[in-house]
Amino acid sequence: MLNVSLRSQLQTYLRNIRRPVELIVSQGGSQESAEMLTMLNEIASLTDLVTVIEEQQGDERKPSFSIGRAGEKPGIQFAATPTGPEFSSLVLAILQVGGHPVIADRTTIEQIRTLESNYYFETYISLSCASCVDVVQALNMMTVINPQIHNITIDGGLFQNEVSARDISVVPTIYMNGELFGEGRSNFKDLGARLHDIEMSMRAALHAAGKP
Prior knowledge:
Layout: H1 4-14, E1 21-26, H2 31-44, E2 50-55, E3 64-69, E4 76-79, H3 87-97, H4 106-113, E5 119-125, H5 132-145, E6 149-155, H6 160-165, E7 173-176, E8 179-183, H7 188-208
Parallel strand pairs: 1-2, 4-6, 5-6
Antiparallel strand pairs: 1-3, 3-4, 5-7, 7-8
Helix pairs in contact: 3-5, 4-7, 5-7
């Protein structure tokens, strides 16, 4: 799937990985699943620090895969084969999980680092959506900064039943902990500020209720 030029560029980027990364694949037996596995195996062939692991049971969404540090629970998932604009999201996620630093607004990074609640994001995208990339990369960066955060990027074309059930008409559409969180273009700083405000509101409510 990767042409010679792309493989060469990717091999250069992957030299920035500092610790082992696991790509844990949950297959579905479809053509899309086979394409996903082929692409991930090609990426892993370019560095000894990336390993593909195929799970027999795996995630309920198939095909999908997670990106995590070896021996740790992964925070980033793709229920998609990230091609087109989203290929950069995949590469960046592998690099950052592998120890390449997150480069972003420092205030927002610190806000994300101090979050204490659990946040589970489901981000619905189209692989042709240019504005989806910023949202996917922002949420993935947050999972690297804070293990309380999890993000799964979902290709609406592969999971049309979910799109219909949730009446999704705009991409990206973000759900947080099962509730609609946002639609359309956003960025790391804006999303981080919203999360920080939510966390502060929850802490204030708990304090008012006399809970630690």
